[in-house]
Specification:
By secondary structure, the protein is of the alpha/beta class. The protein has a single domain, classed as Alkaline Phosphatase, subunit A (3-Layer(aba) Sandwich). The chain has 14 helices and 21 strands. Strands 5, 8, 9, 11, 12, 15, 16 and 19 form an eight-stranded mixed sheet that branches. The protein has a three-stranded antiparallel sheet with strand order 1-4-10, with helices on one face. The protein has a two-stranded antiparallel sheet with strand order 2-3. The longest helix is centred in the last third of the chain and has 25 residues. It starts with a strand and ends in a 12-residue tail after the last strand.
């Protein structure tokens, strides 16, 4: 959540600003946006302008109740929901996803994702690796952190990587920079006041353990004008504490450069504006607001209907220049009451995906923005005695769309009960290889230097999905 205080003033571009901004913490010890930007100047611009929206279905989505229904399976497996036809002949998905069914020709449905680490976090969906990989060196970096390293620039109008997943900067740090170090940590704004989502007990403990310092504040001297921001000397004197501890070896000049860019991004630039949904028209806001069924019972850690606007926020951030945005929808961890909870949550996700895809298409951006939707694993074919589905790492569902990918197809298949993959197994790193390909990055030859000075390939295995390219 961005909170503005003080008297408004007006820039020469006609946009009203205020004199105090609170932005969400970046994690890892209070890393500032200026710190993040400092490391990006050494990286070159990318060969493509494509961007990524990575949507995590937090908790593990039930594949039989979403994109891989099994209507001929026994009742204790097939569940409550009927399949419905889509715009792709022969493709059927859950009745809870009618809007996605209407744009199925733009989506690749992956029914055979394998290789889940079985971990209850989003790290594998951020990096392609389990948390344990290269742990002694700091771990593997998330895709967005790699983009920040390889494609970021000090001239960018927005941070290259923004993580909105849990909506709290200090909870479930799944989008980690790994061995690249804290300078490539994503910007993690606090959006908890924008979107209601109660944390699970474990996440509440994480938040409590990290204390109360959840925000970074940029406070401008009273009376500071946009014109004064252009003057480096006055900028240095206006930001409290940015000069301390620096010597005269050029560090001050570098700090000025990155602090000035941070100020531009957060106060007078595109990023602060992108975070403000009130700038959208009521018509667009309505587009991203699903009707909520009166009969739907919301689980206490689930999202409400406003969560669909997270994807509007993601679209606005991409338009502002962000290269990778991570978003989550909670809570798919349905060990109990799977069907009641899916009746409430899945229509929200269905509505949100349809709104995002059609909105991007109308804006001429769908070919430039690749969208991936997945979770940490699937859920058991067999329904348990609490009418829930438990963890099932053997197979996971995923959807890919946009970015120039070929939609309107199904990749892979599972057996008659959805328990095992029987054709075209897809690894998590295959998905990442596909995304890197869209970005103009060849993970088979591109390396990053680890803290021991050794080159590390972006992926250990994985090939771009040829069906989509």
């Amino acid at each position: 959540m961005f909170t503005f205080f003080g008297k408004p003033y007006r820039h020469c571009d006609g946009i009203s600003r205020r004199q105090f901004l609170t932005a969400g913490a970046l994690g890892l010890g209070g890393l500032t946006l200026a710190d993040l930007l400092r490391a990006e100047a050494a990286a070159g611009k990318g060969a493509t302008s494509k961007s990524i929206i990575n949507i995590h279905l937090d908790g593990g989505p039930p594949h039989l109740d979403t994109i891989d229904p099994k209507p001929d399976a026994p009742a204790e497996i097939r569940g409550d929901f009927k399949p419905i036809a889509t715009t792709v002949p022969g493709l059927w998905i859950s009745e809870l996803m009618p809007k996605v069914a209407g744009i199925a020709d733009k989506i690749a449905f992956i029914r055979s994702l394998v290789g889940s680490a079985g971990a209850h976090d989003a790290f594998q969906c951020q990096s392609g690796f389990p948390t344990s990989d290269l742990r002694s060196l700091g771990g593997r970096p998330a895709l967005g952190s790699v983009i920040a390293k390889l494609r970021g620039s000090a001239d960018d109008p927005a941070p290259p990587f923004v993580d909105l997943m849990q909506g709290r900067p200090l909870v479930r740090n799944s989008a980690r920079p790994g061995f690249l170090g804290p300078t490539f940590t994503p910007f993690r704004p606090d959006i908890s006041k924008m979107f209601a989502r109660e944390l699970e007990p474990g996440m509440k403990k994480e938040l409590a353990a990290r204390g109360n310092s959840h925000a970074i504040q940029l406070t401008l001297v009273d009376g500071l004008t946009p014109e004064r921001l252009k003057d480096r000397t006055r900028l240095r004197s206006a930001f409290d504490g940015t000069r301390r501890g620096l010597d005269a070896s050029g560090g001050m000049e570098a700090m000025d450069r990155f602090t000035q860019q941070a100020a531009s991004i957060l106060i007078s630039g595109r990023f602060a504006s992108a975070m403000d949904l009130s700038k959208e028209s009521p018509k667009v806001l309505e587009r991203y607001t699903p009707p909520v069924a009166a009969s739907a019972t919301r689980f206490y850690t689930s999202e409400d209907g406003m969560a669909a606007r997270k994807l509007l926020l993601a679209r606005r951030l991409i338009e502002a220049g962000v290269r990778c945005v991570s978003v989550s929808f909670s809570d798919f961890d349905t060990h109990s009451d799977n069907f009641g909870r899916m009746r409430q949550l899945l229509p929200i996700v269905d509505h949100a995906l349809h709104a995002l895809v059609t909105d991007l298409e109308e804006r001429g951006l769908l070919g430039e923005v690749a969208i991936v939707v997945w979770g940490e694993f699937g859920r058991t074919p067999k329904i348990n005695n609490k009418a829930g589905r438990d963890h099932w790492p053997e197979v996971s569902p995923a959807l890919l769309m946009g970015g120039g990918l070929k939609g309107g197809q199904v990749i892979g298949a599972t057996d008659r009960v959805g328990g095992r993959v029987v054709s075209r197994a897809v690894q998590f790193q295959d998905i990442f290889a596909t995304l890197y390909h869209l970005l103009g990055i060849d993970p088979s030859v591109t390396t990053l230097t680890d803290p021991n000075g050794r080159p590390q390939h972006l992926l250990e295995r994985g090939e771009p999905l040829r069906e989509l390219l």
